[in-house]
Amino acid sequence: MDGPDEPTRVPLAVEDWATVVIMALLACITFANVLVRYFTDSSFAWTEEFSVFLMILLAMVAGSAAVARDRNIRIEYFSEAGSMTRRRRLAQFGALMVALLFFLMAALSLRVVWDDYRFEETSPGIGVPQWWYSVWLPIVSTAIALRAVGLFVRRGREAHRVEGDQQ
Fold first, then answer.
1. Which residues partner with 122 through β-bridges?
2. 129 φ, ψ to 5°?
3. In this structure, what are the phi and psi dihedrals at residue 122, rounded to the nearest 5 degrees?
4. SS3 state at 129
């Protein structure tokens, strides 16, 4: 499905701009660290830890955009075979499974965040509270799940519209 994005209730620009901001932060942090290492033979201690966090967040945000745009990984032999109705139902099933997975992930990761906060865990590199990093997992997992629910609804509307046109 190439071409313009389908209309969504929450604009896809949210993920697009988050991606731009995260990539810009990564580039600036990495560039600053390279300059410091080049001129001083030492480096910022926090850059590696923060860069890893940003890369994970980037993957999650990109995953949200992929789900919203229905560009997630699938085996095309199965997803593109059969009638249009079958393909739409498979797309709905896939969206439902993604939503369930990420709602479950959000719920379970809340426990991790709570444990990080309650036990005052600190990050291994620079010693900031670990929940500063882990709090983003349930937030972005919920966003991905909601994008999957939106895809499920859109595919359902398409199926009803196509069935109505055929009658």
1. 129
2. -55, 130
3. -120, 155
4. strand
